[in-house]
Amino acid sequence: MEIEKIYNLYSTYYLADTDTRSIRENTLFFALKGANFNGNTFAKEAIALGASFAIIDEIAYHTGPQTIVVDNVLNTLQALAQYHRKQLKIPVLALTGSNGKTTTKELIHAVLSQKYTTTATQGNLNNHIGVPLTLLSMTPETEIGIVEMGANHQKEIEFLCTLAAPNYGYITNFGKAHLEGFGGLEGVIQGKSELYTFLRAQ
After folding, report:
1. Which end of the chain is more exposed for a tag (fewer CB within 10 A), N or C?
2. Is 156 in contact with 198 (CB distance < 8 Å)?
3. Are 13 and 27 within 8 A, CB to CB?
């Protein structure tokens, strides 16, 4: 199914989730796979719990018109979030760093929400799944978006920026977290700085 058609389903209620434990009525459920789980097996349960549709990528779990089969659920989730971001005519602030991301995000959110309807990353859902879910939690009422971005290797922040398309950015610090994935402190600096590289190119 084309992403525009899936977007039409999503934008009826602006609800998306990957966890049946937090499904709300009319949520679009994305059946993600992990190392130890297969979300496709929860599609039927998600619909029973009130999900409007379940996005799956294994035809064996197609149970009717409320299950939509795509090539890859994760890719579809990310593409939907990217498409949604393009519809949002609002400023988005992205922040990353080795330490203090979540605390800084909460402080910024607390200040901006005094004046604006602000949607921010919940907890530390700051990866290739969390960032799309954050974007999809932004509704037409959202005036400012705040997106926390985490990374443990280079090019990850760059990719997340292509989804969130931030207008502003903040890097808390460069530390020695995830040195193995980044290949050393210089790699950390380069990886986190992908946020500023993206902003300068806009």
Report:
1. C
2. no
3. yes
Are 6 and 84 in contact by the 8 Å Cβ rule? The answer is no
- Dump pLDDT digits (tens) for 35-91: 899 999 999 999 999 999 999 999 999 999 999 999 999 999 999 999 999 999 999
CATH number of 89-201: 3.40.1190.10
pLDDT digits (tens, 9 = 90+) for 168-187: 999 999 987 767 788 888 89
pTM of the entire predicted model: 0.95
The full set of domain ranges for the chain reads: 3-79, 89-201
**Contact predicate 44/17, CB 8 Å:** no
CATH superfamily placement of domain 3-79: MurE/MurF, N-terminal domain (3.40.1390.10)
DSSP-derived secondary structure letter, 44: H
